[in-house]
Amino acid sequence: MKKRTMDYQGKVIYLAKFDIVFKAIFLGDGDYTLLASLLSSILYVDIKAEDITVLNVELAPEHESGKLSRLDIRIKTQDNKHIDVEIQLTDEKNMDKRSIFHLSRLYTSQMTTRMRFKDLGSAIAINILDFNYFPYEDYHNIYRLKNTRNNDELTNVFEINYIELPKVPQETNDRKGLWMRFISADNEEVLDMLAKQDPVMDKAVKKLVYVSSDELLRYEIEMREKAELDYRSAMMDRYEEGREEGREEGREEGREEERYSMAKNMLNDKEPVEKIMKYTGLTRAEIESM
Known about the structure:
- By secondary structure, this protein is an alpha+beta fold.
- 47% of the residues lie in helices and 18% in strands.
- It is built from nine helices and ten strands.
- A hairpin with a 2-residue loop joins strand 4 and strand 5 (67-68).
């Protein structure tokens, strides 16, 4: 399990990239100023806090269909953009398909009775990854629906943003870069530098310290960690059971092959069928088919 905490000004605080903490920072007290700043920097648009409607304020249950739940942030803006923000700490080798699946649901879930297709808002996914996923130097890559021949965009209703935290330059000073450095920060020096450099980052650092002291949040984090451990333990048990079943199936197949091989040899030696049945356990039909 990845590092969850760090020491800051004599206190133990959580890392911002831990999904529960991330969600508490941007949604915790109903002040969406920091969230508006984050979205504006990533999407290159001016989004104000009062333009944001958050569609999932509460934390999700521990498990969802046998898997650990997604602790994402789903947002609707005043101009009808539907945005999903998610932190992913480990590479499960499926980010492309995972993103398309959840983005499709974000788009289709807008449809209501008697709603027209032209009234559907654009669906935008923001995936912040704590690992490298693409072979490109840029840490922010954006995908849309385009013509492969001339790069003409079919529509702007789908957009997937991938941000790879390990590739963020440490010397970057633009707002998006500062946000990514804040999210990936794991030591006091980085947080102090960010707080002194930008008033928005100073507010974010103070919010991080505040939410880290919340007892309810600590309990939710403990339950989340327990759920992760239980889930991984269950997956390991299933893996071991599958391996054992595979070994048993292999042993049974081996015994079956031995019986057929013995039967063939006895048939070649002109042994009676009754004798072959006795020594191999095969049926008369099985032997006669040989």
